[in-house]
Structures are given as C-alpha cells and as structure tokens.
Amino acid sequence: MYDSSTDRILPSSERTLVSLDGTLYFSYVTKEDETSYACSLSLSSTQSGHYGPFFRLNVPVSQEAPFAPRIDSNQPQVFPENPVIGSTVYLECFAYGNPIPIYKWTRVDGRRVSKKAVLMQHGRILRFDHAEVTDTGRYKCSAGNSLGVAVREVTLSIRAPPVIVVPLSDLLLGSDTEFALECPLSTMDSHSTVEWFKDAKPIVPLLMPSDQRRRFHVHQTKLYVNSTVISDTGVYQCVVSNEIGLAYSSAYVQVQDSPPAFPRQSMPRKIFAVNGSSVSIPCLYHASPRGHSRWADAGGAKLPHKGRVRDQHGVLVVENILHDDGGYFFCTAHNRHGKAHYQVELVVVDKAQVRVESTDSAATPDEMNVSCSVEVDCGNASECPEAFFKWTFDNRSLNSLPGLRFKTKVSASEKISKPQRISCYSLYGEDSVDVMPRPSVPAPLALKVEQDQNVVRLAWRRPNTHRDIRNHAVSGEADTSGGYLVELRTKVDRQWRPAPREVVAESESQRVTLSDLAPNTLYQFRVRSVDSTTMGDPSVPTTWVKTPPAPPTEAVAGLKWKALDNTTLLVEWEPIETSHQSGEHLRYRLSWSLDKEAEQDAASHERNFLAHYVDTKTPQAVVHLNATNECRMVVFSVRPINDQGAGLVSTDTVAFMNHQGEPRRVSFTNATVLNSSHVSFSWEWEKTSHCGGSHAVQLTCTSTSSEDGQLSVTISAEFSEWILGGLSANTNYECVLRSVNGEENYGDYSSPIEITTKQQPPSEAPSINKLSLRTTESDLGYTTVIEWSAIPFPQGNTTDPEKGYKIFVYVSETASEAVVLTMPIARLSNPDRPSARLDGLRLMYMYTIQVRSLSSSYWNLFCYALDISVAA
C-alpha cells in the first residue's frame, strides 16, 4: 500500500517487484517514488489480514543516470525453501539497473527448461506447477540491459518420497548358511531412513539376545543374516521413509534343508546333436543348501575339467561332436543331506538333407510357393527336435518362425527380370533356389462404354503382346482356358467385384453386353485378361455410367393389421429400397375392398386394383370404415409406386371386424396359491368366428366370509396368466373370469374357482443373540453354535416343514451366493430358544451370517447381518 491509504495497492510494473518474501524492490528510484508505504499480509487459512505501519521513502536524488544491471545479494530465491514433488515452486530473480533489465532463465547443465514452466512478473519469476523430480537442477538467471549483463545461479531441489530401485526377491537356502537383502535407493534418497522387519516385527540387533545379535547385522540399506536356522524362515520387509513419504518391499525367505532332486521336465531325457557341432548341457537340480554336481560317462568315470569332452563347473561340454560321443551321461548332485543322479542320452545325427522345391501352381504372377523340409530319424515323433527355420530373400532376412512352413508376399516393386535367390536355413543345414518371376498378362487397351437405356456395351482392344486366348470368359469365375474378366463397382460400394453371370447378356471376342443392372445407379467398369494360371492387370476404368430410373423392383412384405376401434384399422408393412431407390419419390398405395367387392373381383380372372386406396410415404396407414352390425371382411394389399411407375403388388391380407364384435369365452386352466396375499392364475380362450374378439379379460375374486372382500383387475387379452396380489391372509375366495370387448360389452362369466390364501407370515425379524466356538465331542475340531430370538408364528400345524427358519452363511463379505440351512420348528429342541450348530467353518475366514423366518413359503425380513471371523 502507498500514499498512506489502505485502499491504494502498489501495482506490479517492470520497474517494481513485490517479492514472495514481502520485500519491495525498485530497479531504480525517481522523485515520484517518494511517498509512504506499508506492507499488507493476508492469511487465506484464517481469511484474515494485517498490515504494518506506514513508513516514508525519501529520495534525495533521482537515479536518472543509466547503469549496468546488478542482481540483489538475496537473489535468486526459491519459494518455498524446501519444495516437494507435485507442489507449485517459484524461482525469483531481481536486478537493479537503468534501463530496466530484461530477464532470462536457463539451466546450468545445458538441458532445456521444462515446457510446463511459466514466466511471471516480466520474466523475473519462473513458476513450476506440479513440480517433478526432473525439474531438479541448478538454474541461471541472466539480467541484462544495454550497459551489461548480470548473472547469478540458484539450486532447485525437489523433495520426493523414497524410491527402491530394485525390489527384494524371494530366497530359498539351507541352514547354517548366510544371506543378504538390500533395498538400493536412488542418490537423492541417501538421507532416508531404512528399517527392516521380519513377519511385521522390527529387526533391531541391539534388542536381540546375544546369540541372535551376532547373526543379524544392518548396514545402511543392507541386512545380513549368517548362520541361518529354520526359524529364520519368514517374510522380510524393508521400509524406507523420509519427510515426504515412504516405500517398502517384501520377500519371502525360506530356510530349508533338502537333499538334491531333479524335478520333472527340468532336463530332457534325450538330446539330439548334429555331427560336427558343439553342445552344452547344464545339470539342473533343486537342493538346499545348493551343494555340488559332477558329470560322468556311461562307464561311471568322472569327466575331466579340460578337453573336448569335459565337465565345466557342472555343465557337460562336448565340442566337435563325433558319432562315438553318442551314449548316456550321468549327472550326480550332492550336498550334506544326500545325493541324486540323472541320466541324459546324447544322440548324434548326420547333417540332414534340406530340400527346397518350387511349384508353379500360384494363382498370379506375383506369387510363388516355396517349401523347405528336413528329414531326421529320431525314433519317436514326439522326441523330434524343432528345426527352427529362417528365410532370406536375395540375402535379406525375412521373419523366422519355429515351424516347417513360412509364407511371405513379395511386393510388386520387387519384380525384376533376373533370377532371385530364396534361401532356407535350419538347425540341420541350409539350401537355396533361384526363381524367375513369370511375365504378367498385359491389360486390355482402349476400353469403351456405350449405353442404350438399360443395356451397357463394353468394347476393348487386345494388346500386341497378348497371348492367344480361345475362350473368353466374362463371368464372375475365370475360365481355366483363358479369356477376359469384367469387373464393376458402384458409387456407393467402391470395391471392385466380378460381374455376375446373370447381367452378362452377350459376349464376343472383345465385346460384352450387360443388362439387368440395378436402376438409378452409377456404375464403373474395367476388364482383366486371364489365362489358365494367372490374372492380368486391370484396364483403365470407364467413366461413370448411370442406369435410368425404373419402377420399384421390390415387393412389399410383412403386412400386418390391428383394429384401433370398431371402425378403424392400422395397417403396417416392411419398407423397401431403404438403401437405394430405383426412382424418385417412392411412396406406397394401400388398397382395400369390402367382402362383397372382393367377390366381384374374384369372378374376374384378371387382377384389378381394389375399390378403395390411400397413398402414403411411410410404411403404415390408417383405414377408416363405416360402422356396421354385421361381420365384415376387409381385403387389402400394398403396391410401391415412384415417378416411373408402379411396382409389384403384395400378397392380399384379410381382416375381419364389425361394430361390437362377439366377445370370446375364457376359462381357468390353473390357480396356485403363492403365499398369504398372492395367487397365480392362468386361463385359455375358446375358439370363435373370424369376427369374434376381445380386448381384455376381467379377473374378479370375492371373499366368501366378508361382504366387502372383493378384488377385480382388467388384463390385456395378450396375457394368459396373471399374479393377483392384495388378498387377505387365511381367507377363502371365489374367482371368476369374463372377456371384455369395448367399454360395456362383456362376455359370460367362466366357471368359478375357489382358493384359500395361506396364513400371515411373522411380522418380526429374528435377531442373533449369541455366537460361540466350541470343540466337537471327539475334541478333534471346532464347531460354531448360533442362537437367535424366537419369532411368534401364527397358530397352525407345528409340524409344517415350511414353518421355521433358514440360516444364510456367506463366505467373506464379498460373496454373492450363500450356503442355506433350513431349520423347521419341528426339528428345534427348544422352539423358545432356537439355535443351530454350523459345522465346517474354517479358521481365520470371514463369514457373514443371516437368519430369516419362514411361514408357508413366505419369507419375512432378514435379521441384521453379523460378520464374524472364526479364530482358534
């Protein structure tokens, strides 16, 4: 603030800077700066502020004379002093000078300043949002004007949680050995605190007994344990922490004594080697402690450590293999707890013959089939070693696959006139073959197109280098003796396809006539030359040719109708030409006639339009008829029409209707009582005449014990079953059905059916009172006993198996399906204090248990769920 006013805030400018630490800087002062100033401090955390007393700045002489920049002794600065990763960091720099200096920030190490860094306050502040560890480094502030440049540096260190460079890994070792665990940290984490734990208990050698203290040693990030014992087995964890956060890593160390053993599949029983090659066979086994291994020949003599056939630190090495080297070798592994043997058979085979065969059965001149195979006599096919093929094309490597065949495609740019070499390499040898690409079939020239209404004629000229073609195939399938292949595409579908046989009307040596093409469609054509084995390049496509529009070619299908009332019909059908129209302004004409008119039309052998019609653009229409008391038959059909004419007429559809209709009769087929308030009913309709119909069915149930106990519901005729609710418990009802056609046109009542609802279920939910863990009678295990509060059940048969309780047991709190146990009242030893024994619950598992009462197949509410953890 300035001028002794709390309302006047000093604005930021190129000459002045209010530092983030509250210091007010002037690049140079003038007489206008001579006034009173005060510092204002606002606290966002308490939403309050304070300001100090005003003081006066005296400027005896203005600094009008130019001078070179000079950076303040307290600059540059870092705010906050100890920034952490993810926070906002400010680098501030201020220099005195006239003219006002221009600021520039760079990194001393030559790297570019982060793109996320933002310059503020005329370049004097460099802000880092969401600071990262990569922003750490030394920064240089340069302030310059026309008289010179001032430079000073500042170091930015971003504090971050510690990072363990290499996590711990599990160990398996024997007793009376030693091991070391290390949690290496990055250099910036050198001041972090490292703690070690075993099975969640801290490892502090000073607090251990004297005999244990000598075995454990912690040095910086390493833990050393010597003279191991079986009890050292456990989970070891290092926890690294600093002021920002922590990191941890765990490993399972198992101290176990076991003699050597050769696991299955660890080593092959038989190894194949090519005569003249070299082989190395390691001796792989499990043992704790590790122990030693030696190789011996079939006679039991130990192999030397030097020579062509030798034992090199537990690895059998055979160089320049001879046929005499074949046979059995034995690996013996031993430690202080025992020893084990393993037998390996070395089979020496001659260099296999590799055959490369080229075939000329390719479909185009751009393709050629080359196969590579090897023959190895290995006795059992399952023991044959993989050949590992590798291919090269003119000394350029192709992708290799571990199989007997490989397929690749050579691009057209690699067509050359000289032979090309294809080589096949395998584990057993190599071979190659020189191939010559077949000459391509030249494309037809000067393709012309003529159009006459719905007919398109194509003509072309044969190139001079064209081979003799006796049969000219112009269908979708090229004739094996040679010819031409006509291809076409549309403006909508740009993919070239062979012309179907049905559109080829005439074909000559170099001319084709096409008909029956889709109307109102843009076509483009081209021609290929083909022979018995190859297909030539296509000719230049023709210009776009549009076929003339025509009447609709599709017939309407899927007619269906629905009576909206006694005089109105809704007719619907499937639309046609949804993706492409044969002509402009497609519409539909719905025609209909009444029964007498239909008889007159039937007397004629010709198909005439029906007596009445209506045009519509949508695949539906509403037909309004005069009211009548008689049964009336309506015959209707639909014909598509566009500006070019009418299409095919759909199949006639017949509808029957009258003024009121004849209500259909309905009768019960089944009634099932579900519980105390719901009953399931099903029914069926009796056959009737064409004009008979019903819109709905009315279901009415009347209580035989009370006058006002009646329940009625009207159901759509589309349904044949219904569950009726809202009935009274333990009550007799008489139920009837009758059909409904219109508002007041009811049919006759069906034969009544009597039902009796079940008793009212319990209104209270049981509560679990006690849960205990007890030993079994044989003292060989544990069982869980659960007790809950008794629920007053309605009076009735106490031996009813559907009256009692059910217990739901969920394994863990996330289980979706429960194990359900049924406890009828008749099976309870004391119904006033119900309890049950739950066998089979496993120790240290979390279970959720619920109890629910049941009365005549009707459930009440669950009790509150109880989560338990079974412990010994």
Would you summarize the structure shown here?
Keywords: Disulfide bond, Repeat. This is Immunoglobulin domain protein. The chain has 872 residues and is an all-beta fold.
In round numbers, the mean pLDDT is 81
Give a count of the beta strands, DSSP E runs of length 2 or more: 70
Report the biggest beta sheet as strand number plus sense, adding barrel if it closes.
5 strands, mixed
Q: Which regions have little confidence, pLDDT < 50, spanning 5+ residues? A: 358-364, 400-406, 411-416, 468-473, 475-481
CATH architecture heading of the largest domain: Sandwich
Q: What share of residues is helical?
A: under 10%
How would you characterize this protein structure?
- This is Immunoglobulin domain protein.
- Keywords: Disulfide bond, Repeat.
- Residues 441-550, 662-760 form the Fibronectin type-III domain.
- Pfam families: fn3, ig, Ig_3.
- Residues 76-157, 161-254, 260-347 form the Ig-like domain.
- It contains two helices and 70 strands.
- The strands form 21 sheets. It has a five-stranded mixed beta sheet, with no helix packed on it.
- It is extended, with a radius of gyration of 48 Å.
- 20% of the residues are buried.
- The protein is 1% helix and 43% strand.
- It starts with 15 loop residues before the first strand and ends with a strand.
- By secondary structure, it is mainly β.
- It has eight domains: 16-156, Immunoglobulins (Immunoglobulin-like), CATH 2.60.40.10; 171-255, Immunoglobulins (Immunoglobulin-like); 258-349, Immunoglobulin-like (Sandwich); 354-409 and 416-435; 445-546, Immunoglobulin-like (Sandwich), CATH 2.60.40.10; 560-657, Immunoglobulins (Immunoglobulin-like), CATH 2.60.40.10; 666-756, Immunoglobulin-like, CATH 2.60.40; 768-869, Sandwich (Immunoglobulin-like).
- The longest helix is centred in the C-terminal third of the chain and has 9 residues, at 595-603.
